[in-house]
Amino acid sequence: MASYGQSNPEQAKKLLDSMQNDLRTLSAECKRRNPDIKEAAETVQVKLRTISTKSEDIIAGLLPLSVEIIQPFVMGCDTKNPKLLPLCLVAVQRMISHEAISTAAADIIIGMLWRLMEAGLEELKLLQTAILLLTINSVVQHDTLAKALVLCFRLHFTKDSTTINTAAAAIKQLVSAIFDRVVLEDKIPTTEPKETVNIEQLKAGSRTPPSSLRPCAGDAYLLFQDLCQLVNADQPFWLTGMTEMTRTFGLELLEAVLVGYPQIFTKHEEFSFMVKERVCPLVIKLFSPSLKYRQGLPPAPSPAPVEKPFFPIVMRLLRIVAVLIKNYYPLLVSAGGYSAVRNL
Predict the structure, then answer these.
(1) What angle do CA 256, 258, 259 make, to 5 degrees?
(2) Quick one: pLDDT band at residue 340, thresholds 50, 70, 90?
(3) Same-domain pairing of 122 and 237
């Protein structure tokens, strides 16, 4: 993907000028209390001037130095100073928007966002930054991607209603973005022979993707696997650090993926397995009238009276069943899938 700066040299020059202004402001603000940040900012200013004079492609010049360039802003965020935080986060967002962030720099940014999340600071700006970082391109992958998603999930379960709603929208957008990557990846020809799918490995579950999948598909597989785990009230394999999850939200995410990306589930045997061996049994289990679905309720005394499922859960389950029948019927009636359809 061509970067914004490469196709727009004037915009890249504006980015450089804005970064210089941000660094000057940061240096002035940190002159007394944070001399280490002041020194780091001044060092980066020199590097930016060098890039400006020697690099025809400014973004290409910024990328290999992006770890050093973001360092003063990361240090500024780590002070948790309310005066520095907005300045530093906006500067980081600006670099992300111009695709001037390397994989290593992205890892550092996610770590910074995580620390701010744990401190309960600038929650909306954290979500904005995470969305930019994960949707502008595919620089964030694998464990770093999982950490960014967990960050958004945890912000979804804060006490502030605005943050909760914004995080919910962010998570839905990011889940779609991760599966969009798979669609694009599938369009890229590969000469490598496809490995045989290890069904036993799929049954066991893992924090590492099946070796038969390419990188973006592997991330999407792990995400879908963990959504099934969480809805089933099991511990996730990949999304480590999750502290809370509701079945209603999890079912909404599963439905969105099943509705939006049937081509992925029919193309890849690993994803087909998830539909037949994870989603269908999960739906059947949650439809069982002998289970309690309202989260947080104490267990019923034994023998428990028969109880109807919690309405919000049933509504979402019915929508998933409709999607399975509409989009996945041929898959489910194939070998090994007939019993799932019959039970549904």
Answers:
(1) 65
(2) low
(3) no
Which pLDDT score, from 0 to 100, does residue 197 have? Answer: 87
Cα first-last separation, the chain: 43
Please, are residues 48 and 69 in contact by the beta-carbon 8 Å criterion?
A: yes
d(CA 341, CA 318): 14
Is residue 247 within 8 Å of residue 313, measured between CB atoms? yes
Domain that holds residue 210: 201-344
Nearest CA-CA partner of 287 in 245, 318, 246: 318
Give residue 311's pLDDT. 87
Number of structural domains, the chain? 2
pTM of the model: 0.88
pLDDT at 217 over 90: yes
Domain boundary among 121, 140, 159: 140
The CA-atom distances, in angstroms, between 17 and each of 14, 75, 129, 178, 339 are 5, 21, 21, 33, 63
In one letter, which amino acid is 207? R
Determine the Cα angle at 255 with ends 253 and 261, to 5°: 100
User: Could you tell me if 147 and 114 are in contact, meaning their C-beta atoms sit under 8 angstroms apart?
Assistant: yes
Give the count of beta carbons closer than 10 Å to the beta carbon of residue 57.
14
Is 224 in contact with 202 (CB distance < 8 Å)?
A: no
pLDDT digits (tens, 9 = 90+) for 92-119: 999 999 999 999 999 999 999 999 999 9
| Residue 244, C-beta contacts closer than 8 angstroms, at least 6 positions apart | 153, 154, 157
Residue 23 and residue 109 share a domain: yes
Residue after which a domain boundary falls, among 140, 158, 175: 140
